[in-house]
Amino acid sequence: MPDHVHPPIPDDERVACEVCLKEIPRSEAAVAEVADYVAYFCGLDCYDKWQAKGKAQGRARVAPHRSTPG
Ligand SMILES: [Zn+2]
User: Fold this and answer.
1) How far is the CA of 40 from the centre of ligand 1 (A)?
2) CA 63 – ligand 1 centroid, Å
3) CA gap 61, 34 in Å, rounded
4) Ligand 1 centroid to 5 CA: how many Å?
């Protein structure tokens, strides 16, 4: 049994940025996986803001990644 299963979201699905709530295609979003959910960001700018906030809350540091380079 897998440790964690992600919900099946199509690649062209739009997701809301965790910080500014702007909608972006999931394939374009920066992604941070935390303990029990996945956070999406329109860019590393918002990711940095979120992480700065997360640090204050004692959240674990996670690295952003893009699903498809370029
Ligand atoms: Zn944003």
Assistant:
1) 8
2) 16
3) 9
4) 25
21: alpha, beta or left, given left = phi > 0 and alpha = psi -120 to 50?
A: left
pLDDT tens by residue, the chain, 70 residues: 567 767 665 667 899 999 999 999 999 999 998 888 899 999 999 999 998 987 655 555 556 666 665 5
Two tokens at 16?
């809301």
- C-alpha of residue 8 to centroid of ligand 1, in Å: 23
Distance 25 CA to ligand 1 centre (A): 12
Enumerate domains of the chain plus CATH numbers: 14-56 (2.30.170)
Three-state secondary structure call for residue 10 = coil
